[in-house]
């Protein structure tokens, strides 16, 4: 009998099991941001408790921060008073409890799931939680990482542990080589389209196969990031040389410590004999660039396909398809390439890493954003990504093309800061959710890769050919 | 103690209702744990765009939306379809349901994180078979009906017309019935956690740097 990587991580963190089927697991790393933490800190204070292990916690403001800020910006300059209060509150709570925070002016501030790995705070084998569903991102490093609610944030602060039930094991084998113009974003969108937004519910999903072995850590993060859009709160990849190379480069650990760690990390792989509750094989060589057309991340088609006709679906499905078409201003069999776009957003914890920006810049070199696009913004995931891009001159390519080069944050992925869609505006977005109103009240989101978003910026529409 | 809930069923015939629909991002700017009742299903409930702090009375009501109409404005039971509460981990979604007065959500499946969040706030998420969901929809769609949910006996009743047994782990049922504080319970295992932590530090010192 063998173990999956999820089984191994589970056993490694299991403090105790209860008679009722729940278990208590130990939490190695806890990331915090300003939106889902204030009520947890308040609860802690009410109970006169302190965080169990201060240095397990790392905080940064990312959701509410304006992306038009410069180095001299202070929290006081946030115009939206309610947003400001949340950022102030995080600052205050971190100071009160002595929690390490990369504040709004720190060079290391950024989207929490982008800064964790690049600052070496995400290490293989860790259990990682955050009050944010995209915590699955860290699974790319062979971590047991998942999003939790605010009550659980409080529980983790107070007890360094989490009460959970073990998930079932699923493996997705991505085999083959991708076509030119296709990226990891297309692969994960294709998976969600195939298994649906509840396809992974109740499972820890391991991404495996030759495709996964061949891609970069950044690309793996994009895939694990969106496992929650397939319903799986845990998505992960077995550790290999690429994982270790990345961590060595980004970690500040002493050499002898990291060498000891590597010996352990190498075991964080799924055993050959391990059994999965469910296994799916996908040939990536046939996958085209993907674009979402509707209001759920499973409503996805190839970039050159037509909007699906509702009539071929069951009555129950038809209803949600019709609601989505109505919201998105679409009709049956319409071509995606017929749609006029208003905005382009390149960013979010899914696609704001240096590789994503390079991918978009490659397309934009010497090109101009279409006159029909009212606003095209690129929001690097972190201070480090921004700095690296500026070192490579990528920012100039964006600016010359007509993009706005912004400061790090979650930005228009969910529009808690001023970066939002106006009603009925259509947006080409590299983010992860196309829900109704996600990017702004009545806004219309089409999810796609950085490359497709850049092409849409140039053409004002989805291209027919690549 | 809450082992019996009786109330009007509000049927919302949609699948994949994500937590962004249950409560939009704007209201996540609040730093409070209560006061979300006016923002539940905000995008569907109103015809205008709201801001945190605005009251229902200041808004343009969408009278076609079920929860705006009596007696559904006092519903305690929400009936819906597949994958309710998918998407964002925001516990505000459960707080909004709770503050509105919803005590039970019935669906054929739930998003994992939302499902967990419910039990921390005394909202009971009930998974039923699709055929049972269909039955409840046909019963509650044309006229308002009040059903009772007996958490101890694990049965849903509507007069003598309907009786549906449901499956719910005892520990989850108890969390709703007694509303126990989980932190207090876990802290009883403090010594165990400490021991585990020491052992982990010894074997994996890099995690504790």
Low-confidence stretches of chain A: none
Q: What is the CATH topology of the largest domain in chain B? A: Aconitase, domain 4
Helix content of chain A: 25-40%
Count of structural domains of chain B: 2
The main β sheet of chain A shows up as: 5 strands, parallel
Count of folded domains of chain A = 3
The run of helices and strands of chain B is EHHEHEHEHEEEHHH
Mean pLDDT across residues of chain A: 97
- For the record, the CATH architecture of the largest domain in chain B stands as Alpha-Beta Barrel
What gross morphology of chain A would you assign? Answer: globular
Gyration radius of chain A, rounded: 21 Å
Query: Please, what is the CATH homologous superfamily of the largest domain in chain B?
Result: Aconitase, domain 4
Largest interface: A-B, 80 and 59 residues
Mean of pLDDT of chain B = 96
How many helices of chain A does DSSP assign? 15
CATH architecture of the largest domain in chain A: 2-Layer Sandwich
Counting helices, strands and paired strands, the structural category of chain B is alpha/beta
Structure description:
The complex is a heterodimer of chains A (466) and B (209). Chain A is of the alpha/beta class and 466 residues long. Chain A has 3 domains: 14-164, Aconitase, domain 3 (2-Layer Sandwich); 168-286, Aconitase, Domain 2, CATH 3.40.1060; 290-459, 2-Layer Sandwich (Aconitase, domain 3), CATH 3.30.499. Helices cover 33% and strands 16% of the residues of chain A. Chain A is built from 15 helices and 19 strands. Chain A has helices at residues 5-13, 38-46, 81-97, 112-118, 150-159, 184-195, 210-214, 217-225, 241-250, 255-265, 315-328, 354-364, 383-392, 394-401, 450-459, and strands at 14-17, 23-26, 29-32, 57-59, 100-101, 127-130, 144-147, 161-164, 168-175, 203-208, 234-236, 278-283, 290-292, 300-302, 343-346, 375-378, 404-405, 426-429, 444-447. In chain A, the strands form 5 sheets. In chain A, strands 5-4-3-6-7 form a 5-stranded parallel beta sheet. Chain A has a 5-stranded parallel beta sheet with strand order 17-16-15-18-19. A 4-stranded parallel beta sheet of chain A has the order 11-10-9-12. In chain A, a hairpin with a 5-residue loop joins strand 1 (14-17) and strand 2 (23-26). In chain A, helix 2 crosses helix 5, helix 6 packs parallel to helix 8 (217-225) and helix 12 packs parallel to helix 15. The longest helix of chain A is centred in the first third of the chain and has 17 residues, at 81-97. Chain A starts with a helix and ends in a 7-residue tail after the last helix. The model of chain A has no long low-confidence stretch (mean pLDDT 97). Chain B contains 8 helices and 7 strands. In chain B, strand 6 and strand 7 (162-165) form a beta hairpin. Chain B has helices at 19-22, 42-45, 92-100, 112-119, 130-140, 170-178, 182-187, 190-203, and strands at 4-11, 77-79, 104-107, 124-127, 146-150, 155-158, 162-165. Chain B has 2 domains: 4-178, Aconitase, domain 4 (Alpha-Beta Barrel); 181-209, no CATH class. With 209 residues, chain B is an alpha/beta fold. In chain B, 31% of the residues lie in helices and 15% in strands. Chain B is globular. The chains are: A alpha/beta (466), B alpha/beta (209). At the A-B interface, helix 2, helix 3, helix 5, strand 8 and helix 10 of A face helix 4, helix 7 and helix 8 of B.
């Amino acid at each position: 009998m063998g173990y999956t990587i999820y089984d191994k991580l589970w056993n490694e963190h299991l403090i105790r099991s209860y008679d009722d089927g729940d278990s208590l697991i130990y939490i190695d790393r806890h990331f915090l941001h300003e939106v889902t933490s204030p009520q947890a800190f308040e609860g802690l204070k009410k109970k006169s408790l302190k965080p169990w292990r201060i240095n397990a916690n790392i905080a940064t403001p990312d959701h509410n921060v304006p992306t038009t800020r410069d180095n001299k910006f202070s929290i006081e300059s946030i115009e939206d008073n309610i947003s400001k209060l949340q950022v102030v509150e995080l600052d205050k709570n971190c100071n009160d409890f002595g929690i390490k925070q990369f504040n709004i002016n720190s060079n290391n501030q950024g989207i929490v799931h982008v800064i964790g790995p690049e600052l070496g705070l995400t290490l293989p084998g860790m259990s990682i939680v955050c009050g944010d569903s995209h915590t699955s991102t860290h699974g790319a490093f062979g971590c047991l990482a998942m999003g939790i609610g605010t009550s659980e944030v409080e529980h983790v602060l107070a007890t360094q542990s989490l009460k959970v039930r073990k998930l079932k094991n699923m493996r997705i084998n991505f085999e083959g080589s991708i076509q030119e113009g296709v990226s990891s974003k297309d692969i994960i969108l294709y998976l969600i389209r195939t298994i649906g937004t509840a396809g992974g519910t109740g499972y820890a999903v391991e991404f495996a196969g030759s495709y996964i072995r061949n891609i970069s850590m950044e690309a793996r993060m994009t895939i694990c990031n969106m496992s929650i859009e397939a319903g799986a709160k845990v998505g992960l990849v077995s550790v290999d040389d690429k994982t270790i190379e990345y961590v060595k480069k980004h970690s500040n650990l002493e050499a002898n410590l990291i060498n000891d760690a590597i010996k352990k990390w190498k075991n964080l792989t799924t055993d050959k004999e391990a059994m999965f509750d469910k296994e799916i094989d996908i040939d990536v060589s046939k996958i085209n660039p993907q674009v979402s057309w509707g209001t759920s991340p499973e409503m996805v088609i190839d970039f050159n396909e037509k909007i699906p006709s509702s009539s071929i679906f069951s009555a129950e499905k038809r209803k949600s398809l019709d609601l989505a078409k109505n919201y998105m201003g679409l009709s049956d069999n319409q071509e995606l390439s017929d749609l006029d776009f208003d905005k382009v957003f390149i960013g979010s914890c899914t696609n704001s890493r240096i590789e994503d920006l390079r991918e978009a810049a490659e397309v934009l070199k010497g090109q101009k954003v279409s006159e029909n696009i009212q606003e095209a913004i690129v929001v690097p995931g972190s201070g480090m990504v921004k700095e690296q891009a500026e070192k490579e001159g990528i920012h100039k390519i964006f600016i010359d093309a007509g993009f706005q080069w912004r400061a790090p944050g979650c930005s228009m992925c969910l529009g808690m800061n001023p970066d939002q869609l106006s009603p009925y505006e259509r947006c080409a977005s590299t983010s992860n959710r196309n829900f109704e109103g996600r990017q702004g009240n009545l806004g219309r989101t089409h999810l796609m890769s950085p490359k497709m978003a850049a092409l849409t910026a140039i053409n004002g529409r989805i291209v027919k050919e690549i | 103690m809450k082992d019996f809930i009786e109330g009007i069923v509000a049927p919302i015939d949609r699948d994949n209702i994500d937590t962004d629909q249950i409560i939009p991002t704007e209201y996540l700017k609040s730093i409070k744990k209560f006061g979300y009742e006016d923002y539940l299903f905000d995008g569907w409930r109103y015809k205008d765009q709201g801001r945190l702090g605005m009251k229902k009375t200041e808004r343009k009501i969408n009278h076609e939306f079920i929860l705006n109409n009596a007696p559904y404005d006092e519903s305690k039971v929400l009936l819906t379809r597949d994958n309710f509460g998918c998407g964002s981990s925001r516990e505000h979604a459960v707080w909004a349901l709770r503050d509105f007065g919803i005590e039970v959500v019935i669906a054929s499946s739930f998003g994992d994180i939302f499902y967990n969040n419910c039990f921390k706030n005394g909202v009971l998420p009930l998974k039923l078979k699709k055929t049972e969901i269909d039955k409840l929809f046909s019963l509650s769609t044309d006229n308002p009906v009040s059903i009772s949910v007996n958490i101890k006996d694990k049965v849903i009743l509507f007069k003598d017309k309907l009786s549906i047994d449901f499956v719910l782990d005892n520990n989850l049922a108890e969390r709703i019935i007694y509303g126990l504080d989980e932190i207090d319970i876990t802290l009883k295992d403090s010594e165990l956690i400490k021991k585990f932590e020491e052992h982990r530090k010894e074997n994996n010192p890099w995690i504790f740097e």
